[in-house]
Amino acid sequence: MGLRHGFILHLLTYANLVVSPQMVAPGQNFTVSVDIANTGPLFGKQSVLVFVTDDYRIVTPEAKMLKRFDKVALSPGQQTTVQFVMTSDDLAFYGKMDCVFDSRSSLVSFQITK
User: Fold this and answer.
1) Which of left, alpha, beta for 98 (phi over 0: left; psi -120 to 50: alpha)?
2) In whole angstroms, what is the distance from residue 97 CA to residue 60 CA?
3) How far apart are CA 62 and CA 97, in angstroms?
4) CATH architecture of structural domain 12-113
5) Which residues partner with 112 through β-bridges?
6) Quick one: which of 66, 106, 101 has its CA closest to 86?
7) Residue boundaries of the structural domains of the chain
């Protein structure tokens, strides 16, 4: 019996999502990092995606905005930390009514997915 398309024999786990610093001024850089470990029996590759959600917004941009991505390749038992350098402009969006680039957000959430 052969392997089916989409059948995954590696298991990558995500832990320790860190945003540093947690308060960002306009024009300031910040880092989003996450630890990824291959806890499965085989070598594995996977895309790591960083989404931003504006929790309190005046207008309604996309619910989740993809801001960064990378691909990791890990051997069984191997672990790595993936870091994404972002700026305050990565938290901004174009307003629905006036089409002006808006970075007035006060609170955002980050989600790392595969």
Assistant:
1) alpha
2) 10
3) 15
4) Sandwich (2.60)
5) 50
6) 66
7) 12-113
Residue pointed to by tokens 């191997």: 78
CA atoms within 13 A on the CB side of 85: 3
Residues forming beta bridges with residue 96, ordered by sequence position: none
Whole-Å CA distances, 22 to 18, 36, 81, 105: 9, 21, 18, 14
Question: Which residues 6+ apart lie within 8 Å of 90 measured at CB?
Answer: 52, 67, 68
Average the pLDDT over 75-89 and give the result: 93
Q: Rounded to an integer, what distance in angstroms lies between the CA atom of residue 10 and that of residue 38?
A: 7
Q: What predicted TM-score, i.e. pTM, was given to this entire model?
A: 0.75
Stronger pLDDT, 49 or 10, i.e. the higher one: 49
H or E, element range at 46: strand 44-54
